[in-house]
Design brief:
The complex is a heterodimer of chains A (about 325) and B (about 325). Chain A is of the alpha/beta class. Chain A is built from 11 helices and 14 strands. In chain A, about 35% of the residues lie in helices and about 25% in strands. In chain A, a hairpin with a 2-residue loop joins strand 4 and strand 5. Chain A starts with a helix and ends with a helix. Chain B is mainly α. The chains are: A alpha/beta (about 325), B mainly alpha (about 325). At the A-B interface, helix 3 of A face helix 1 and helix 5 of B.
Chain lengths: ~325, ~325
C-alpha cells in the first residue's frame, strides 16, 4: 500500500456508503454515508432512530441491503474485517457460568491468540478496565457495572484500531464513569477511532464534540456540535448575559442585525442571536471598547441536548 | 472445546436426555426380568385337530375365545418337544432325530432373542424416539442456546469465518450425541442380556452413522429456523415416524429407514428382515451407509453456507 493510500484508509477507518437496511417493510438505516477516522464520534438519536442497526452494520452482524460498509477498506461482513475492531454490545449476554477472567481469555482465544498470549492479554485488558481483583468470580454474580467492564475488556483485548461501543456507560457508577471516560480519551489519544452510541449526552460532551445524529434511520447531521448548531439559522442561539446595566445594554443590542430578540430582566438578559459567531465577535468588541461589566455569559442552547432537541424536534422523534 | 463445555452446562437438556435413558433402561430391564427377549412367551393358536373327519362347531365363549382353538406359547411347544423322546421307547434313529429336532427348536428360541429385542426396543423405542430426540436436543441447543441467550454476538464479531463457527458447533455436539446414543444403546444392551449384547456388537456402526446424520440434520434446522425444537419435533414425529413406515419410495426421505437397512444388513444371518420385504424394499448396507454419510456431509455443507450468509439479530429469539 502506498503512503497516500494508507493515509486515505487511515482517514476512513469506518466507512458507510449509501448504506440502507430494511427489516421487512421497516427501514432501519436509510442511505447513510459516513466516514470516520481517528478520534471519538458520538452517535446520538432517539430510541429506534437506527443507531443499533448502524453499529451492527459496522460490526458485520448485519449486511446492508443497499450500499456498503467497510472497515479499513474491508467489507464489514467479511470475517477479516473483524480483526480491526472491538465491539462492546448493548445486550447483556455472557457465558454466565464463566468467570470474568475466563470469559475475556476465551474471547482472546477466539481472536486467534494462543493460550499463553490470551492469558497475558486478558490480564492486561482486565487491569485496564479495573477488574483485576474481581475477575475470578463468576459473571453470573456480577453487578451491571462489572458486566460493562468485562464487555469493554473483551472489546479491547486485541488492541483494535476501531472500537465500537453501544451504550458503554449504561449502569456504570460515577467513579466508574469517570474511569471509562478517561480510558476512552486515552484510546483516542492512541489514534484509535471510537464510535460511541449513548443516550448520556452530558458524558458524551465530555469526550468529544464530534457527533453523528440519527433520526428515522437517516444520518441527519455529522460534525462538531458548533458546526451543527450553526446550521440552525432559523433557531437563534439563546445567550444569558448578567450585568448591572442590563436595560442599557439591551437597548444597544436590540438594534443589531444579529439579534433576533431579547428578554431583559433587572440584572440579566436573554439574547437570541441569529448568527452566533458574528454576535460573539461583535459583543466581545462592545464589551472591550466600552468597558461593560459582564458578570456572567452563557450560551443556553448549544449543548448536545439542545442541538438534539432542535434536530429531533424538527424531524419528529421516532 | 468451549462449545463442548457449554453444551454440558445446558443442564435441562442433559437431564431430559438422562431421564429418557433412565425410562428406557427401566423398561428394558423389566422386560428382561419378566419374560426375557425370546419368542418363547409369544402365543399362537391353532384349530383343534379333527377327529375321524368330525370337525368341532365354531363357537366362542363370553370372553371372545374360541374354545376349540388351542393356544400355546412357543416356549411350551419347546417343552413338549423335549418331552417327546421320553414318552415312548423310540428306536435309536427316531430318538436321535426327535432329540435333534427338540435341540434345534430350543436353539431357534434362544436365537430369536435378538430379533425380538431389535423389533421391540431398537426399532420402536430407540430409533423411533430416543435417538432422534437425543440428537435433536443437543443439536438445537448448540446454536439455539446461543441465539436465545444472545451470546452468539461474541462469536459473530470475532475474526473467525462463519462456516468454521458452524462446523465447530457441530463437532461440539458430536461427543455428546455419540455418548448418549452409543452409550445409551450399550446400557440398554447390558440390561437386555445376551440379545442386547449381540445387538450392540452388530448394530453400533448403524447407530453411529444414524447419530451423525440426525445431528447434522438437526444442526441445519437450528441454523435455518427460529423455532428449531418445534421444527425438529415435527420432523421426528411426522417425517421419521409416519413417512418412515410408508410403502414405496416415500420412506426413503427418512434417516431411520437407512439405519434400519443397515441393521437388516448387519443381522442378515440371524433371520431379521422386514415384515414384508417386497413392500419395504430395503437397500443394501453399503447404499444405506453411503446415504447416511451423504446426508451428514450434505446437511453440514448446506448449514455452513446458510450460517455464512444468514443474519442473526439478537432480538430474533
Amino acid at each position: 500500500m502506498t503512503e497516500s493510500a494508507a493515509a486515505a484508509v487511515d482517514s476512513r477507518l469506518l466507512a458507510f456508503e449509501d448504506a440502507s437496511k430494511w427489516y421487512g417493510p421497516v427501514i432501519g438505516v436509510n442511505q447513510v454515508s459516513l466516514a470516520l477516522g481517528p478520534g471519538i464520534t458520538g452517535l446520538v438519536g432517539a430510541n429506534g432512530a437506527g443507531k443499533s442497526t448502524l453499529l451492527k452494520l459496522a460490526t458485520g452482524q448485519l449486511k446492508p441491503d443497499l450500499g456498503s460498509v467497510s472497515v479499513f477498506g474491508v467489507d464489514a461482513w467479511d470475517w477479516r474485517a473483524k480483526d480491526y475492531f472491538g465491539y462492546c454490545p448493548d445486550v447483556d449476554a455472557f457465558y454466565e457460568e464463566m468467570s470474568g477472567a475466563a470469559f475475556v481469555r476465551t474471547i482472546a482465544r477466539l481472536c486467534g491468540y494462543k493460550a499463553g498470549e490470551a492469558a497475558d492479554l486478558a490480564s492486561a485488558a482486565l487491569e485496564r478496565v479495573g477488574m483485576t481483583g474481581r475477575a475470578g468470580r463468576r459473571i453470573r454474580g456480577y453487578s451491571k457495572g462489572m458486566r460493562q467492564r468485562i464487555k469493554l475488556a473483551a472489546a479491547l483485548i486485541h488492541d483494535p484500531p476501531l472500537v465500537v461501543l453501544d451504550e458503554p456507560l449504561s449502569g456504570i457508577d460515577p467513579v466508574g464513569r469517570r474511569e471509562f471516560l478517561e480510558l476512552f480519551l486515552a484510546l483516542a489519544g492512541q489514534n484509535k477511532c471510537l464510535l460511541i452510541s449513548s443516550h448520556e449526552l452530558e458524558a458524551l460532551e465530555k469526550l468529544t464534540d464530534h457527533v453523528a445524529v440519527m433520526a428515522r434511520g437517516r444520518m441527519v447531521a455529522v460534525g462538531t456540535l458548533a458546526t451543527i448548531r450553526d446550521l440552525f439559522e432559523d433557531m437563534p442561539l439563546s445567550v444569558r448575559i448578567d450585568c448591572p446595566e442590563c436595560r442599557q445594554l439591551a437597548a444597544r443590542l436590540i438594534t443589531w442585525d444579529e439579534v433576533a430578540g431579547l428578554d431583559a430582566g433587572s440584572d440579566s438578559l436573554i439574547v437570541r442571536a441569529r448568527n452566533p459567531r458574528q454576535f460573539f465577535r461583535a459583543f466581545t468588541r462592545l464589551v472591550c471598547d466600552e468597558g461593560i461589566a459582564v458578570s456572567h455569559f452563557e450560551p443556553l442552547d448549544d449543548s448536545a441536548h439542545a442541538i438534539l432537541g432542535y434536530l429531533l424536534g424538527g424531524i419528529g422523534k421516532t | 472445546m468451549l462449545s463442548i463445555r457449554r453444551l454440558g452446562r445446558a443442564r435441562m437438556m442433559v437431564f431430559v436426555a438422562l431421564g429418557l435413558l433412565g425410562v428406557a433402561l427401566v423398561l428394558v430391564a423389566g422386560k428382561t426380568a419378566q419374560t426375557g427377549w425370546s419368542i418363547g412367551n409369544l402365543r399362537y393358536s391353532y384349530p383343534a385337530p379333527k377327529f375321524a373327519g368330525f370337525t368341532l362347531p365354531r363357537v366362542k365363549t363370553k370372553d371372545g375365545r374360541d374354545p376349540f382353538r388351542v393356544q400355546v406359547t412357543y416356549g411350551i411347544v419347546g417343552e413338549h418337544l423335549d418331552m417327546i423322546p421320553s414318552l415312548a421307547p423310540w428306536a435309536p434313529p427316531e430318538a436321535a432325530m426327535l432329540s435333534a429336532a427338540a435341540a434345534g427348536y430350543r436353539g431357534t428360541l434362544k436365537a430369536s432373542g435378538i430379533v425380538v429385542y431389535t423389533r421391540a426396543m431398537l426399532f420402536t423405542m430407540f430409533l423411533g424416539f430416543l435417538l432422534p430426540v437425543w440428537c435433536l436436543s443437543f443439536a438445537t441447543e448448540s446454536l439455539g442456546g446461543e441465539l436465545e441467550s444472545r451470546s452468539l454476538v461474541w462469536l459473530l464479531t470475532r475474526p473467525i469465518p462463519r462456516w468454521s463457527i458452524y462446523l465447530a458447533k457441530y463437532l461440539a455436539i458430536l461427543p455428546w450425541a455419540m455418548v448418549f446414543s452409543l452409550g445409551g444403546f450399550w446400557l440398554m444392551g447390558r440390561s437386555a442380556g445376551p440379545a442386547g449384547r449381540i445387538a450392540f456388537t452388530l448394530y453400533w456402526p448403524a447407530i453411529a452413522l444414524g447419530t451423525l446424520a440426525f445431528t447434522s440434520l438437526f444442526h441445519l434446522i437450528a441454523a435455518t429456523s427460529r423455532r428449531p425444537t418445534v421444527v425438529g419435533l415435527v420432523y421426528c414425529f411426522f417425517l421419521e415416524t409416519l413417512l418412515g413406515d410408508m410403502p414405496g419410495l416415500m420412506k426413503r426421505v427418512s434417516v431411520s429407514y437407512y439405519v434400519r437397512c443397515l441393521i437388516f444388513d448387519a443381522a442378515g444371518g440371524l433371520g431379521l428382515q422386514p415384515d414384508k420385504p417386497a413392500v419395504y424394499q430395503p437397500v443394501s448396507g453399503t447404499t444405506a451407509a453411503a446415504v447416511l454419510v451423504g446426508v451428514t456431509v450434505g446437511a453440514l455443507i448446506l448449514g455452513m453456507i446458510r450460517f455464512s450468509r444468514a443474519e442473526y439479530r439478537d432480538d430474533a429469539t
